[in-house]
TrEMBL record:
Keyword Cytoplasm recorded: yes
Start and stop residues of the WD repeats: 257-289
UniProt keyword Repeat present: yes
PROSITE patterns, per database record: WD_REPEATS_2, WD_REPEATS_REGION
Subcellular location: Cytoplasm; Nucleus
Assembly information from the UniProt record: Interacts with USP12; promotes translocation of USP12/WDR20 to the plasma membrane. Component of the USP12/WDR20/WDR48 deubiquitinating complex. Interacts with USP46; contributes to the cytoplasmic localization of the USP46/WDR20 complex. Component of the USP12/DMWD/WDR48 deubiquitinating complex.
Coiled coil, from the record: none
Organism of origin: Tinamus guttatus (White-throated tinamou)
One Pfam match: WD40
InterPro entries: WD40/YVTN_repeat-like_dom_sf, WD40_repeat_dom_sf, WD40_rpt, WD_repeat_creC_regulators
Region annotated Disordered, chain positions: 401-452
Keywords: Acetylation, Cytoplasm, Nucleus, Phosphoprotein, Repeat, WD repeat
Name of this protein: WD repeat-containing protein 20
Signal peptide: none
Amino acid sequence: AAEGGGKEMNEIKTQFTTREGLYKLLSHSEYSRPNRVPFNSQGSNPVRVSFVNVNDQSGNGDRLCFNVGRELYFYIYKGVRKAADLSKPIDKRIYKGTQPTCHDFNHLTATAESVSLLVGFSAGQVQLIDPIKKETSKLFNEERLIDKSRVTCVKWVPGSESLFLVAHSSGNMYLYNVEHTCGTTAPHYQLLKQGESFAVHTCKSKSTRNPLLKWTVGEGALNEFAFSPDGKYLACVSQDGFLRVFNFDSVELHGTMKSYFGGLLCVCWSPDGKYIVTGGEDDLVTVWSFVDCRVIARGHGHKSWVSVVAFDPYTTSVEESDPMEFSGSDEDFQDLHFGRDRANSTQSRLSKRNSTDSRPVSVTYRFGSVGQDTQLCLWDLTEDILFPHQPLSRARTHTNVMNATSPPAGSGGANPGSNGNSITTPGNSVPPPLPRSNSLPHSAVSNAGSKSSVMDGAIASGVSKFATLSLHDRKERHHEKDHKRNHSMGHISSKSSDKLNLVTKTKTDPAKTLGTPLCPRMEDVPLLEPLICKKIAHERLTVLIFLEDCIVTACQEGFICTWARPGKVGLLSSQNQANSPSGTVV
């Protein structure tokens, strides 16, 4: 599926087809600097794009912000409806001595008259601006007393009008409140919580000041973080190659994963919060189950580093054959992990996937990735990967991880006759510990086992109708192995075993994590192939955003491209009226 390299214009794809139809590049909906000249991006920070909808009366409420080099632009985004008019940015700023690196709108407070935009900078500062009122209200870390390193990611805390989180290439993250000052002296910190490879400090001062919290996570730069859809969890990816998922409020580590090699550069959550996808310097996309705390698939299609991963909530499909009610276990499952119900219909239908009454529900998650190889890949995460329910031809990939310790299914070693109860009620007994020399002492297992069994019970009752007994037996044992490594982490103090302290050493020995639940071998998990893999730019790609009518991509030359979804091209291209600068409203 992959397209060849080379710089010739004819190699750049302007359309592609998937099962849902034809996606088409709208050349006149391209946003860039007003002069449309490709930006010479050597040594520059990645071009990033942020969207916000201000709900204005005209129905044209989308606004976009993007950074190119030292410049920051704010435009009305006309998407598939109208040609872009680059001569009229609502706001444009040029910075001296520092460059914008990332930005984020507050969606809660946005109106047609005012938006709150946070901008992070290469020298460590964070600016709060209102590009509609053209105001600069505040500058945080102005004197660089809090952190001198580049801002890698900035985001408003979900549901908050005043709290925001900032990550730096120092590996630190800071929680700010827009109402508070940053003080005139360097902050003094007091340890709030310490865990495996992370520490959280509060700021000691007589009056409340920023930062409210300082997180130190892993080794090297913290490249990106993302809040779960319900805002309760925070996924962080770092240059040390680790994904770490925290409960944001209780500041506890929920689980970890290690890249195949190299740093992890990007992270995103599925719309229902059940899966996390990462991309990085191993050229792979990795799918990690939030509930099981394990890698469930990897995807190979890129030829270079993966710079952005994103789920497409509009193509994530749930097909129901009959309206169904929640089973009791599924409600428990919801309470366990996400607490509050979600309003979004796709999310609620996705959560129903676990309650299987009489007829199965089919679910497919769509996600995309872009990379430094200038390619866009689209991926489907399907039933056979999410719920391996029979000894498929692919069963080998699911079972090899166990070969060292348990015979494969069908050899009699799985003993299907005796484990019937443990599938529906795994709380009855803790599965036997695996004879692994690098596992934790068994006392830690029983603790983790009880926690995992609650989760197993919720999942198993949902999917047992599809599952063979022997496969589930393996799944539980695999699960328990994960929990020894992950769930017990939060309860272990800094005096924990060497195995867990791996991450705190400056250089993690990849040989010690490869083949463990942190980083399974390639042959031990399913390998996804991309639905499409297309070269769509001359320079490395830095943006991938899924909107209702289109997909938005951007490359390091500073061109922001709009790809109309099937059937969404509208009058703009179909009647070829894009030549007029104003275009035509559909």
